[in-house]
Amino acid sequence: MATMLIGDQTVAARSGTQLEIIDPATEEPIDTVPDAGAEDVDLAVQEARRAFPEWSRRDAEERASIVRDGLRSIREHADEIADTLVHEQGKPTIEARGELNHFLHGMEFYADLASKIRGSYQDLPSALGPSYGLTTRRPLGVVGAIVPYNYPLTLMGTKLGPALITGNTIVVKPADTTPLATLKVAQYLLEAGVPPGVLNVVTGRGAGAGEALVAHPDVRRIAFTGSTATGRRIIEVAGPLFKRVTLELGGSDPVIVCPDADLDKAAKSVLIGRFWNAGQSCLAIKRAYVFSEIYEEFLDRIVAGAERYEPGPGWTKAEKPKIRIGPLNTKAQRDKVQDQLERSLEQSGKVLLGGTTENDNGFFFPATIVTEAGHDSPLVSEEVFGPVLPVFRVDTIDQAIELANSSPYGLGSSVWTNDVRLINKASREIEAGMTWVNQIHFGYDELPFGGTKQSGIGKEHGAEALDDYTDLKSVVVGGL
Ligand code: NAD
Q1: What is d(CA 243, CA 480) in angstroms, rounded to the nearest whole number?
Q2: Is 146 in the pocket of ligand 1 (CB under 6 A)?
Q3: Atom of ligand 1 nearest to the CA of 248
């Protein structure tokens, strides 16, 4: 049985209850973790509170240096961590290694920023005597980080990096189904010198451990990534307590492919954008709008590309020219994707590829491409968190943007064209937190990342994220 990390202890839940972790490729249990309750969360928060004064007073470069020592150790254990991720999450080994590398890169980005956080200086009006003013940034205290199952490590890193280097302490709650790689990474950070209590991991269910963390009066900030429905619940619980909350929620990213696009590159990026991580990415391409002039040609390319995806366990390689696509993380998620597709097809639509699973063991779903679906169908109005791509024909950029915007979500988006007027129009008018131009959807560590509309509130990544981990304080120095 895996254990939680609270202070300097590896512990079970007080209640003794456990959650089984299932390998989604085999449906076999691979481990159990404690199913923490409010009591366990309270213990973790108290440890984090106890560790805060000392950690926050440390020199910023020393904090960064400790984090870097931890990252070195994680890199040395990369194979073991990636393998754990493959078995609990389902993703292919190459994607698990990619996720771990992204985690390391993001953490290093923040370690480099540790000593560069600045306030400001202002000479003040002299009516009350000579004085000057400063703004400084102070850490908040205990941060609660709640992480989803699709990228357990990178999405922990986007919270852990800024929290630790600004001098906060943290309690991490990984997703119910993917806590194992997280526990390993946290253990290596602690062994490398992150002091006990600075980083704690509680495992268990969202409605139990997760909600207890959000409701805990000593947690100053909640950094949440997950579904829009859970985000709504987090606001309800955290709102009356006036906590600092950032919500990175669901998305239904559109891509617009214009007549002058480089079709090879666009098709390749759309395929990766939709089928990476078996379609379980917040910033996956979930709707394609293709201009009539190139519609048939583009469709041929993406259908040919999608035919190469071969479902199978993430630790096995597909034989070339096939590409491995792993299972969805849970049976519930696989069934939901199937249901969304079926409800859409009841209205209209043609399945060009995929559509139903052929595997009777494991939560697999094949790469699926649909045309002529209704634009009010679940494939458009809901977030489809699996490998299904609806493709729509458009005739003008205005029509494409209007359809792109007719979604409750506004996370990412992309446009493929070399026409500067179309680039300008799309990047200004698409309602989304990000627009990539002639580029795959990718969360850069250096740039703020976050959605608009029902895709969330606040930003992660970039130096901008540090604002949410610090209080801005004004100091006036008089009597000079
Ligand atoms: P989820 O909302 O079901 O769970 C996310 C986390 O919240 C888990 O740790 C879960 O245990 C916890 N949780 C559940 N109920 C809770 C509650 N009442 N109180 C506190 N915590 C609770 O999401 P998921 O299914 O694990 O992840 C997929 C979703 O995450 C998708 O919608 C995806 O788009 C979104 N996502 C968004 C981003 C982004 O940056 N915008 C990134 C990745 C994933």
Answers
A1: 37
A2: yes
A3: 41
